Amino acid sequence: MIIIMRPKVNDAEVNAVIQKLESLGLQANVSRGVERTVIGAIGEDRHLHQPVLKAMPGVSDVVPIVKPYKIVARESHPENTVIDINGILLGGNTIQVIGGPCSVETQPQMDLSAEGVAAAGCRLMRGGAFKPRTSPYAFQGAGLEGLSMFRQAAKAHNLPIVTELMDVRMLDSFLEHGVEVIQVGTRNMQNFDLLKELGKVHVPVILKRGLCATISEWLMSAEYIAAGGNHQIILCERGVRSFETAYRNMLDVTAIPVLKRETHLPVIVDPSHAGGKAWLVPALAKAAIAAGADGLLVEMHPTPCEAWCDADQALTPTELQTLMVELRALANAMGRDL
Ligand code: PEP
Ligand code: MN
């Protein structure tokens, strides 16, 4: 950390900063320039509370030089993390497409969805039993009964299930149902108590990017899970809020290579919630793969126009099948499988 002092700083102010750093077990390296004095804090300064230093007399700015996240940083783990979900590897050379409806509705809807997901060649299935809806009057999800329907449908095709956890009080039920991958939705990316609990379980977690979260904030949220001991984290870019109204969210394709450089964790993309329209999904899915994503989360419904949630963005089973063929060709051209 570098502490930049104000232009006309006096010795007492400089000494106070030095003493503060030393009291925290750090060494202070003072450089006195013609216009400015800067103090380098040497040692493990990740736990240093920046605002405390910034508020000291004579301090102009405090600039961190190490990343605030540690476990999830590629610096600390150069190899890619590959997550094993019942023998299905995510984060390796094979791109995984997680397909399924926005929400669990009925047993026949889930059975048909699972059939469509398997027929398209996807190896994992998605579906929300607990839905974070903007309106309290909208369908809130089928709840625990939905988890059972999901399990039954997925089991027939040997598909591991991916489903969203919104409330930490439901975690035990998720574990009892053997949910293979727990999804943290965009609205809960900074629900730190939820993240801390997910740090204690041995279940892979998909951490979606918050609606307005920076990459650094997102990685700090991943660090919350990792700090508890659970390193099986998959980051999911799902579009961010922007000024544009022509589509639901703005897919941040640039985040993909940035994340691949910053972290060893797998990165997947949700083109469905980014575009918000089924016709946009193939283009965004291809862009994601071309930019280096390790997987996709794609909404598909047996009859999209009858979907209880996110009807506009759901692909039909046939559209998903066609997309998978196109994506496989793209993956192969990039030296990957799908
Ligand atoms: C979802 O995947 O069902 C969902 C609600 O997504 P997000 O949290 O990205 O809005
Ligand atoms: Mn949805």
Describe what this molecule looks like in 3D:
- The protein has 338 residues and is α/β, with parallel strands linked by helices.
- The protein has two domains: 2-64, 2-Layer Sandwich (Alpha-Beta Plaits); 83-333, TIM Barrel (Alpha-Beta Barrel).
- It has eleven helices and 14 strands.
- The chain has helices spanning 11-23, 50-54, 107-120, 143-155, 171-176, 192-198, 215-227, 255-262, 271-275, 281-290, 317-333, and strands at residues 2-5, 27-32, 37-42, 59-63, 83-85, 88-90, 96-100, 124-126, 161-164, 181-184, 205-208, 233-237, 267-269, 295-299.
- Strands 7-8-9-10-11-12-13-14 form an eight-stranded parallel barrel, surrounded by five helices. It has a four-stranded antiparallel sheet with strand order 2-3-1-4. A two-stranded antiparallel sheet has the order 5-6.
- A hairpin with a 4-residue loop joins β2 (27-32) and β3 (37-42).
- α3 runs parallel beside α11 (317-333) and α10 (281-290) runs parallel beside α11 (317-333).
- The chain is elongated.
- Bound molecules: phosphoenolpyruvate and manganese (II) ion.
- Manganese (II) ion (MN) is lined by residues 102, 273, 299, 309-310.
